[in-house]
Amino acid sequence: MRYSYRFLKKWVKKILVDFHHDPLRYQHLLNVQELGVKLARKYGASIYKVKTACLLHDITKDESLEFHKYYTDPLDFAQYQHSIGILHSFSGANFIKSKFKIKDQTILYAIKAHTIGSTDHNLTSMILYVSDIGEKSRSYSDALQIRNTALNVGLNEAVLMAINLKTNYLIKNGKTPTKNSLDSLEYFKNIVNNDPNNII
Ligand SMILES: [Fe+2]
Ligand SMILES: [Fe+2]
User: Fold this and answer.
1) Domain containing 158: what range?
2) Angstrom distances, CA of residue 92 to CA of 14, 26, 54, 73, 152
3) Ligand number with the minimum distance to the CA of 137
4) How far is the CA of 22 from the centre of ligand 1 (A)?
5) Which ligand gives the minimal distance to the CA of 135?
6) Does the residue 200 lie in any domain?
7) Fewer CB near the terminus (10 Å): N or C of the chain?
8) Which mean pLDDT values do the consecutive 10-residue runs of the chain (200 residues) have?
9) What is the CATH number of the domain that holds 164?
10) Contact yes or no for 119/180 (Cβ under 8 A)
11) Ligand 1 centre and the CA of 194: distance in Å?
12) Is residue 199 part of a domain?
């Protein structure tokens, strides 16, 4: 059974606005979804998969450490237990699988990869990755540039800019980017620099 987008949206609102009193996060999800759909149309991705991944990607971000532990595979939890900012991508994917019976691997993978990055992105995960940073409420110039690049230049270029922005931010704040993010940075640098025609 596949729940409708309308049904999922109602639940997201219930969890984030009614339960966690976090309307800004709910609005962020709608904004990510809005940009995601534009990009899905431009790059030929599945609108349903992109809409669903964008709408649900931060659904567990306000939850407790215990919640993340319950919904995260033990090995992933052991690796990222000190970073709630990362855990929500793992718990989010497992939570929507359990609560909404979403088993589509493309959607689940996109949600898992939206924090730690990947060298094995799919079109949906790339669109979520750039939409998360480039959505309209992010008004700083880097976000604007990522949005414009995704909409007018190419998705590989936009993903590269987004990974660069995230890893630089972490380094500036004394944190270490995940190995996935650093590998992903190299991977997209190679694609963009060595094969400029290879634009998805
Ligand atoms: Fe997130
Ligand atoms: Fe987000």
Assistant:
1) 5-194
2) 16, 15, 12, 11, 31
3) 2
4) 14
5) 2
6) no
7) N
8) 89 97 98 98 97 98 97 96 92 97 96 92 96 95 96 96 93 89 93 69
9) 1.10.3210.10
10) yes
11) 30
12) no
